[in-house]
Amino acid sequence: MIKLPILVAKNATKGGTSVPLESEPMSLRFEISATNDRSRRGRLLTPHGPVQTPVFMPVGTQATVKAVSQDMLEELGVELLLGNTYHLYLRPGVGQIRKLGGVHRFMGWPHAILTDSGGFQVFSLSDLRKVTEDGVSFRSHLDGTTHFLSPEGTTEAQIGLGADVIMAFDECTEYPADEQRARASMELTLRWAERCKKYFEEHKEERPWISCQPSALSHQSDCRSLDFPDESANRFFSSARDDRASTATLTGKAQALFGIVQGGMDHALRKESAERTIEIGFDGYAIGGLSVGEPRAVTREIVESTLEHLPKDKPCYLMGVGTPEEIVEYAKLGVDMMDCVLPTRAARHGLLFTSEGKISIKQARYAGDEAPLDLNCSCRTCRRYSRAYLRHLYASKEVLAQVLNTVHNLSFYLDTMRRVRHSI
Amino acid sequence: MIKLPILVAKNATKGGTSVPLESEPMSLRFEISATNDRSRRGRLLTPHGPVQTPVFMPVGTQATVKAVSQDMLEELGVELLLGNTYHLYLRPGVGQIRKLGGVHRFMGWPHAILTDSGGFQVFSLSDLRKVTEDGVSFRSHLDGTTHFLSPEGTTEAQIGLGADVIMAFDECTEYPADEQRARASMELTLRWAERCKKYFEEHKEERPWISCQPSALSHQSDCRSLDFPDESANRFFSSARDDRASTATLTGKAQALFGIVQGGMDHALRKESAERTIEIGFDGYAIGGLSVGEPRAVTREIVESTLEHLPKDKPCYLMGVGTPEEIVEYAKLGVDMMDCVLPTRAARHGLLFTSEGKISIKQARYAGDEAPLDLNCSCRTCRRYSRAYLRHLYASKEVLAQVLNTVHNLSFYLDTMRRVRHSI
Fold first, then answer.
1. Which end of chain B, N or C, is less packed with Cβ atoms under 10 Å?
2. What is the ipTM of this complex?
3. Cα A411 from Cα A78, distance rounded (Å)
4. DSSP B391-416
């Protein structure tokens, strides 16, 4: 087990503003407790609780994992949620969430949250956006209004939302892209990464939750009362676990900023992107620009080769991946964090993952099937309902179909990751 | 406290088929534990557990209370659900549910269920239906196919679904209706009531769950194992409470059939309808044909005058009522059971009931409101989320809005009824 220093020496990184170590809130702490070949098992200690890794993060686009209540997410063992900056920026707006104390308090989720930079959503708007050196102008998918997101703007937005882990603004290189295009895109991402880092260092004290002062770090209750100042607010967070409260003391109250490696499907560019991103200095590193249409074998090769160039003592996050088989595979390669809309989106379309393969619950063959969805699953859905009932709910377009199907698919993903952790 | 005999002497009622008392499964038992003026507090002992009265029944149209899982209904303290025969008849079909062991097992709800006769839904189809002496022919709202529901047909359907309490097929007289029309409609309902009773007495042994034999009544575990023959089925019902299991022994395994009083807004016709319905003999009596557009004062008068003519030792069910104020009012008049789609439907439209009045959560004024929906409510929604968050979910058309809003409104209705019971 590798123990890292509690205080991350940020002032040692190139380009960071020099803040004296003793007055700086502590950043993300990453503890690796076991390794097995290339895979590793660990804990990410965030201001809002510990996260066991490798971790799969359910996607909570609009500050909600579609159809599932926060209580149920806790019951499933979710420790880290992903929120989408693009969606929250448009609705209800960053200012609104900041005024309400940040996204944790806003959505009644006292555990860890990661926000993306909004870059991927903006790039998905294709016809509605324009990229310049400065940033991206785009039209809202909601009302057609024009907006502009820059590295500084998205970092400001993510500081306002106040997630535990926030992401640098990157350009997700399209597939296919020739070497020249992939390099230009990678260079842009690197320039943007520096701007994000600079803005973050200058503004990270502005997060909506109040930081514990270093002198108060030993007074755990003071830290929490600063964050949740009155009793009526605390009732929203009554389910916070004790061990999480103590972690807040350990890790302080700083947000962590992750850099993103790009470089298309080119191994040399990926290596260069990794090295230069590390040089800028981040709390963790993400592999972006994959699962954009390339063959699966290529994805795997790029992940494998990029991982070689990432620091072993920092969390590695593979973005937007994947199927149950893939998340196992990538965890075995040494990836610590993954997210994907697949389990939740597929659930809403009646596609369910089970220990015996995929099931399309809309099929007539399940109309009289009394068996639970997955005999090897102990989620709320499988404990109580038959396939026949789930098929009826889906055919009848009942909202409960979305609830029960999503609970099951998330349970399947989280169980899968739990098994991977136990195997390390 | 009035104690009624455990075995209801069905063979004493006029027109009932004569079944020897000792071989007949026991019917619904109704215990009144306290009275206060005209109101009464009691327990309905059904084959699937006791129900405290006065009771408000959430509506589970398609074998689901829209957006709310059965676990959450249990947590809210729901003891009796209403299912709609019309909807289940069309989808997934009575045969399917019968094959799957009945509606309790189908929907994973081991507690009490009441089904309506489908009459009200069919009459609501206006252009799509035709009433004759024999029954009602109608076209499905789903696919336009033609169907025919008769008193015998709907009773057969309800025996197939296997709810604890089933309803006679009635004609819901439209409003306004003159004396002649109201009488003709009432007479038709009475003729249909006799046909329902006759069919029920001849076929009630055909319910999908197997009856405990009287000789086995003391062997509780045997009764349950007959009903849930294997372990994999039992896992669907693991949450059944022990006190409910013991009730199964006490009350036996018979379905109960309720008659419905009609007669428009005419006091004399209501009296006559009540008396002649009682003469046919039912396990309980419902007041139908109200909340069809008449002024609220008229509804109240009709309820009050009809109640005078109903037997004091049988449960009285006022159908399709009402607002929170109304359910309190009618419980005080002596009504034991009520149902209404209002709390669930209003919730899905963002209309929420609180101790300080109604709230339309879509309003912009709640966008920054950190308070819980109702400070006096301890439901899952009020314990954890702010009005600002609920407003965001609603504005974003998130499914979780339906879930959380429905949980709250049902909690408000059930709390209201709990307070009424405590006040008696």
1. N
2. 0.89
3. 9
4. HHHHHTT-HHHHHHHHHHHHHHHHHH
B296 touches chain A (CB under 8 A): no
Strand duo B316-318 + B80-83: pairing: unpaired
Cα–Cα distance, A104 to B190 (Å, whole number):
60
Most B CBs within 10 A among A71, A387, A392, hence the mutation to make, goes to A392
Chain B positions in Cβ-Cβ contact with residue A236 (cut-off 8 Å): 372, 383-386
Secondary structure element (H or E) that encloses residue A345, with its range: helix A342-348
Query: 3-state DSSP call for residue A138?
Result: strand
Among A257-261, B2-6, B103-107, the minimum mean pLDDT is found in B2-6
Residues in chain A: 424
CA B32 to centroid of chain Cα atoms: 19
Unique residue bearing structure tokens 């209201």 = B416
Q: Decide if B101 contacts B107 (C-beta within 8 A).
A: no
Kindly state the tokens that stand for A14.
Answer: 């190139």
Answer for the pair B311, B261: CB distance below 8 angstroms, yes or no. no
Which tens digits make up the pLDDT trace of B220-246?
Answer: 333 333 343 333 433 443 333 333 333
> Is A349 a residue whose pLDDT tops 90?
yes
Tokens of B102: 């009945």
pLDDT value of position A26: 55
In contact, B255 and B261? CB cutoff 8 Å = no
Q: Alpha carbon of B332 to those of A112, A201, B37: distances in Å?
A: 49, 65, 8
How many Cβ pairs closer than 8 A exist between chain A and B? 137
What are the start-end ranges of the H helices in A29-174?
A: 70-76, 85-90, 94-99, 103-107, 119-124, 151-161
SS3 label, residue B218? coil
Residue B301 CB-density burial (10 A; 0-12 exposed, 13-18 middle, 19+ buried): middle
Q: How far apart are CA A144 and CA A138, in angstroms?
A: 9
How far is it, in rounded angstroms, from Cα A2 to Cα A163?
Answer: 26
Nearest to B194 by CA among B172, B168, B161: B168
Going along B296-406, which residue ranges are E strands?
316-318, 337-339, 351-354, 357-360
Neighbours of A9 (CB within 10 A): 11
The reply to whether residue B388 touches residue A236, judged by beta carbons under 8 angstroms, is no
At position B200, the amino acid (one-letter code) is F
φ/ψ (deg, to 5) at A413: -65, -45
Chain A's closest residue to B101, CA to CA, is A370
Which residues of B are catalytically annotated? Answer: 116, 339
Residue A175 CA to residue A318 CA, distance in Å, equals 17
Q: Which letter does DSSP use for residue B308 in this model?
A: T
> Radius of gyration over alpha carbons of chain B, in Å?
21
* Cα distance between residue B299 and residue A169, in whole Å: 63
B236 in contact with A at a CB cutoff of 8 Å?
yes
| Distance between CA atoms of residues A407 and A419, nearest Å | 18
DSSP symbol at A25: P
Tokens of A304: 């494998």
The C-alpha angle A127, A131, A133, rounded to 5 degrees, equals 175
Positions of A annotated as catalytic residues are 116, 339
B53/B334 Cα distance (integer angstroms): 10
What CA–CA distance (Å, rounded) separates A196 from A158? 11
Judged by CB atoms closer than 8 Å, whether chains meet at B388 and A64 is answered as no
Q: What's the whole-model pTM score?
A: 0.88
Q: Residue A82: count other Cβ atoms within 10 Å of its Cβ.
A: 26
Of A62, A99, A399, nearest to B396 by CB-CB distance is A62
- pLDDT range class, residue B26, cuts 50, 70, 90: low
